[in-house]
TrEMBL record:
The lineage of its organism: Eukaryota, Metazoa, Chordata, Craniata, Vertebrata. Signal peptide: none annotated. Keywords: Nucleus, rRNA processing, tRNA processing. This is Ribonuclease P/MRP protein subunit POP5. SUPFAM superfamilies: Rnp2-like. InterPro entries: Pop5/Rpp14/Rnp2-like, RNase_P/MRP_POP5, Rnp2-like_sf. Residues 155-164 have a biased composition (Acidic residues). Component of ribonuclease P, a protein complex that generates mature tRNA molecules by cleaving their 5'-ends. Also a component of the MRP ribonuclease complex, which cleaves pre-rRNA sequences. GO terms for cellular component: multimeric ribonuclease P complex; nucleolus. GO terms for biological process: rRNA processing; tRNA 5'-leader removal. The gene is Pop5. Gene3D superfamilies: Ribonuclease P, Pop5 subunit.
Length: 164
């Protein structure tokens, strides 16, 4: 049996309207990306990219999208992403753009990159804080976003205790 290699593109939905992020659906993102590929690369590019193209993950609150495609056609997909200008959801069109953050071979590498990216974003927010209350809130977010070995081991011990 032949194993088909995939590439995962981690993208960010950039829009001026904050309502856009909460209203998007994975189906709408997939249709917009396919439409952009068809406009830029024609039928050939659309056929190459749509073989295993899927939206694997969408977080509407953070605007993070994970797209999967075949390894040999990820360049076609990534070159068409800047041409996504709007997403249509619930019969409304929201102007936005897709910004590629990372291209990885597995979902796990994309997750690791996303954790580091979010930490850097929180640190930038920490530097721009106006008062002490905001700083404490962001510091709490930074600490809760990282798991230490001790915390993960104690969580495993609690899970084991309930099964015996």
């Amino acid at each position: 049996m032949v194993r088909f290699k995939n590439r995962y593109l981690l993208c960010e939905v950039v829009s001026e309207d904050p309502r856009c992020r909460q209203c998007i659906e994975d189906r709408a993102v997939g249709l917009a990306v396919r439409e952009a590929i068809g406009r830029v690369h024609g039928d050939y590019g659309l056929a190459r990219c749509s073989i295993s193209f899927t939206v694997k993950y969408l977080n509407a609150y953070t605007g993070t999208v994970l797209l999967r495609c075949r390894k040999d056609s990820y360049r076609l997909l990534s070159s068409a992403l800047p041409f996504v200008r709007q997403l249509e959801s619930r019969n409304q069109k929201y102007p936005c753009a897709l910004n590629t953050l990372h291209v990885g071979g597995t979902i796990r590498t994309c997750q690791k990159f996303l954790i580091q990216y979010n930490r850097r974003q929180l640190l930038m927010l920490l530097q721009n804080c106006a008062n002490e209350e905001e700083k404490q809130c962001i510091k709490k977010s930074l600490l809760s976003s990282s798991l230490t070995e001790e915390q993960s081991q104690s969580a495993d011990e609690e899970d084991d205790g309930g099964t015996e």
